[in-house]
Design goal:
This protein has one domain: Trna Endonuclease, Chain: A, domain 1 (3-Layer(aba) Sandwich). It is 43% helix and 10% strand. A four-stranded mixed β-sheet has the order 1-2-3-4, with helices on both faces. α1 runs parallel beside α4. The longest helix is centred in the first third of the chain and has 15 residues. The protein is globular. 21% of the residues are buried.
């Protein structure tokens, strides 16, 4: 399954499973191919390389929120992604890089259901 379909399924599952948190779970559309004009506009607006695909903006278990970088089973992070993940972790965020829909679902469950004081 490609990243798009895994992410689409994950968002649908999340919205059904945690409807009260729906407004706190959102995509960060940094990736994808764009023409040069659109890429320049987005960069000027603050798009940053390496920022994960999704964020759950809910503090839990001593973390400020959860970022998810969706990957396929064989997908690998870029250097920009590794640097962004380190910066986010250093600043109190949980970061997961699940490989597929099921792994992403488990990362969210683990964050919400195993963390203290969510």
């Amino acid at each position: 399954m490609n990243e798009y379909n895994a992410q689409r399924l994950l968002v649908a599952w999340f919205d059904t499973t945690y409807p009260y948190l729906k407004s706190l779970f959102f995509a960060i559309p940094n990736g994808g191919k764009r023409d040069k004009v659109t890429a320049k506009r987005l960069k000027d607006e603050g798009v940053r390389p390496g920022i994960p695909d999704l964020m759950l903006a809910r503090p839990c278990g001593g973390k400020n929120g959860l970022f998810l970088e969706m990957k396929t089973v064989s997908g690998r992070p870029s250097e920009a992604q590794e640097a962004a993940h380190l910066a986010l972790r250093t600043n109190g965020y949980a970061v997961a890089m699940p490989r597929g829909y099921e792994a992403a679902r488990e990362a969210i469950r683990g964050y919400l259901e195993n963390g203290a004081a969510c």
